[in-house]
Amino acid sequence: MSSTERAATTSPRGEKLNTRAASVVAVAVLCSRVLGLIRDQVFLALFGGGAVMDAFAIAFRIPNLLRDLFAEGALSVAFVTTFSKTIVREGEEAAWALANKVVTLATVVLSVLIILGIVCAPWIVHVVGWGFHGSKAVLTVELTRIMFPFIVMVSLAALVMGMLNARNVFGMPAMASSFFNLGSIIAGAGVGWWIDPHFGPRAAIGLAIGTLVGGALQLGVQLPSLRRLGHRFRPDFHWRDKGVRTILQLMGPSVIAASSTQINVLVNGAFASELGNGRVIWLQIAFRLIYLPLGIFGVTLGTVSLPLLARLVAAGDLLSFRRELARGMRLALLLTIPSSIGLILLANPIVSVLFQHGRFTAYDVAETAAGLRFYALGLCGYAALKILVNAFYAIDRRKTPMVVTFVAVGLNLLLNWIFTVHLRWGHRGLAFSTACVATTNFLILYALMRRHLGRLESRALGAMLVRLTLACAVLAAVCWSGQHWLMAGWAQQRFWPKLGALSLVIVTGAGAFFGCALLLGIGEMRDIAQVLRRKLRAA
Description:
By secondary structure, this protein is mostly helical. Helix content is 81%, strand content 0%.
């Protein structure tokens, strides 16, 4: 275990959000997101943006939703919180024993869930893709059945990641999803070519098999790090345990709360399935691009902050808890608001450079970019939620996010109907609905957390937002100018000139924003600059 991954866990009082660990996770997540983009580029170039990729998107979304509910959602959050507190209160041996019980229970329950999913796949597809008919529906059912075992692989991978994060090992767990993407690309394209060299609809079976290969790799690459920490898995069926009971109690309300965004995306997919071929995959690609900054910043901060917040609560240090929670949210907004502006102003050239290859046409680019702009309006809300929801779990107020999420899901259904049925905005309305819901969800939870803690350094947040607005105005001017002057006629340009112009605009805009933020005295930006300087010296 490297020095970056190693940190003492015996004295939570006075701990601080580990910026160095966050930078390690950010780099690893960046690699994963880039490989995820390459995965989408390869698949879209081979199959285009039509019916086949719609079928794969819906088929993958079904086990992926369950992954968010059980792996990266409720189970992961509940397990990391309880595991971290067990280390502090009872020691490592008790924590490893708890881990064995939870892994055994998760394997048994998820295996049963897989069998039910395979048997009930036709009914499930009818619900989540009610606009699919004929051969498109048949292909979706077949792909769904193949990919259902992915749930148990990725759920166990998330549990292992939780154990490693609780011991302040962040590098390899964050890199694990990169191996998922590599396995998906190599196995998916290879098996698809073996089935049909022309990549017709049957070749999509290769994509489903590649998903399973990637899931197995995501779990397998983390196991050596776990063994180095001294953990040896032994099946343990003694589930009448206080720690197991606590995790299950935490999971109950948070099954919905931890995955509200994904539930809304699933609902959006069902609505999109009625709008015609391509709408499902356009929205998925747009959300993938949103997930690049969200993963690098929001998920990174959420991953690093959860064990820390849980330990601070266990130690009774609410002052530090409040300070680190406020700092984490300021960092999330600082990093995602400029990302939103860049994605909105540069949506078309970004989508064109990344995906306009092979069978993915200029029309697909324009429609995907339209969804991206509306999704980007909610990016800062998505990112801040990753931290804020974890904070509610850390203080054992798990029912609060659940209740707010019920409201959010209902609001999403209402807005979907208004924007797509009444106003006829198509898939753009679905993206805008998701952005509105994420922002509303964050604002409600922020107000409730502030009320619970008495204060949440709101003045510091307000002061930062004022300065951030000025820096973002400079960024917007650079992006707008680059879009209209440097990138004039970008749609007709070849790939390399287009990539060069887009890269120049992004680098110039980022540099202008970074410099303005430093000149305006944004404290969190100074912290980031110090980390970068240390990294450069170390290199």
